[in-house]
Predict the 3D structure of the following.
Amino acid sequence: MHQLPIEQQILLVAQIVVLVALCAKLWWDGLYKIYSWFFGYLVVELLQMLVPLFVPLNSPTYRDYYVVSQALVICFSALVILELYSIILRGLAGIEKVSRRYIKVTLLLAILVSLLPSRLEKTSNTLTGYLFVFQRPVMSSLFILILLIAGFLVYYPIPIGRNVLVYLVGFAVYFVATGTTVFIRNLGHYWGRPMSDVYMGVYLTSLALWLFALNRQGETKSVVVGHQWNPSDERRLLAQLEAINASLLRSARK
């Protein structure tokens, strides 16, 4: 592994091993058909991780490959969030249609909010520097969308598959780690190595969570996140949600 610090070499090997095992497990359990964008995201991540094993990190070849592959990772990350929304709201067709219509606006607003601290960031005028400036607000905005999903699930006690909850928690941890570490690294290059260590460690944790918690049985087991402490309030909120969904469906047919 060309010019990687020893601790990052260890973390990289561990990530590759866990990623290969996770992709194999999703394929074996047939979950890649349900979470297709998630599976595609993992494959792109795996291909990106294999390059430092063969290409020097300071070479133009690695730089160009990293920029292209990281741009793909960011695109797949956005598609993963859309997939999460669709899966969580698939039993609420009216709300799902409306959310698809407004999620682009929400994503744009989230990016604008996450751009506020950009004046504090110091990045080089290079291709990778521009990538880091672009990456931080996008990943931070995706985390904001994750928070909106989580807030919805906490307020409305709709049942979701256990796999969906694991999927959501893993990406919440990943996005907050990515946004935070890239922002701190952009403040000064002297933070580069420790922030990379933290990022790789957190991402390995998310991969391990998905590997051990995602399984075929998780598709048949449902969990409810919010309002379990008040059954009457739970029924009222579910009825309210169904009424909203029915109203939106009627409006869509007109």
Q: What stands out?
A: The two ends are 60 Å apart (CA to CA). Residues 6-253 form one domain.
